[in-house]
Amino acid sequence: MELTTLQEQRIEQFVPTFKRYLEATDREADLHERHERTEMLSRLLSAEGLEQMTELEFGQVISSLWASLMWGNKGYLVERLLNDNGLSQLQVSLRDLLWGNRTIAARYDDFRKSIKGFGAGMITEILAFVHPEQFGLWNNKARQALFLLGFEETFPTVKKSQIVGKEYEQFNALMLLIQGELAQQGLPELDLLGIDYFLFEVWKAGWESRELTTDETEQPEATALTDFDHDDMIEQIIAIGQWLGFEVHKEKPIALGAKVDAVWQARIANLGVVTYVFEVQRRGSYDSLILNLQRAQNNPSVQRLIVVAMPDDLTKIRREIETLSESFRRSVGYMEVAEVMRAAELVTELTGIINKLELVKGEFGV
To answer: What is the count of structural domains for the chain?
Structure first.
């Protein structure tokens, strides 16, 4: 794998932006935060730390992650991860992920298979903070930054929000290439976590101000995203609903014969409960999806049925639903995967801004 001329030019284009960030006064605050988080995660996630980890310490790890920012109530997230997996299984799987002897591709894939509720962002952030010389951080901002740097052709993974182990291995190799190019541009001594800071500045400066020389009217998610992870999408819907103040449920039976991906509920004084149902469609039969929604509508508290899918799938699903009864047709809403991801990003950004005010201290001290 080598950088193309275009990629080298794009990287060079954003070097002055990154140098301005490195010279800015708020850089010190970022360095301090990184040092504190690295110190805490290295201690709690060391082989010895994992051996004696408590539920409180696990909560401190999860609550400290950028990937957890969108969860207003991080205690809910921590409790669900513990309930779904058990502390002992989390300890064993994290030990193998971080300190195992096999390839990172194998360890990453096994962790995803054995542990529920961890997306690529959360897993790779843990790896990047514990082993910053070896592993980079894969999240939507990094993915979009790579798109801006011209990697969509040579690294098709840039079009996916979730990745498998082999793709993460390739991503780390790519990060090392960027590291080498930045060193030639006068930015040595950056580990792969430092490269993530560079990618963040690329995303912020390039995407928001449209500094690219190509088509500047394109939207990142509409052009870049070709696939997503079903479970991760449910997690994002749950997190958004929880942040908005709804009581949220995942994979909940809502009516006879109807178990739905996600539910938002709100109690209206003593009048009853209002329910919003979400079904995420990635693969499978449209007929099964529609039948499940029709059954869910039999619950009298259900006010809206929302289908979340890629644009092409939404078009086909809408076409089929338009042939059904008016009452059902009018109860269904449609949301693109990219819209959910954007909403989750906005929630994350707003939560970060609010957290700086330190209005409320979290139960894990983070």
So the answer is: 2
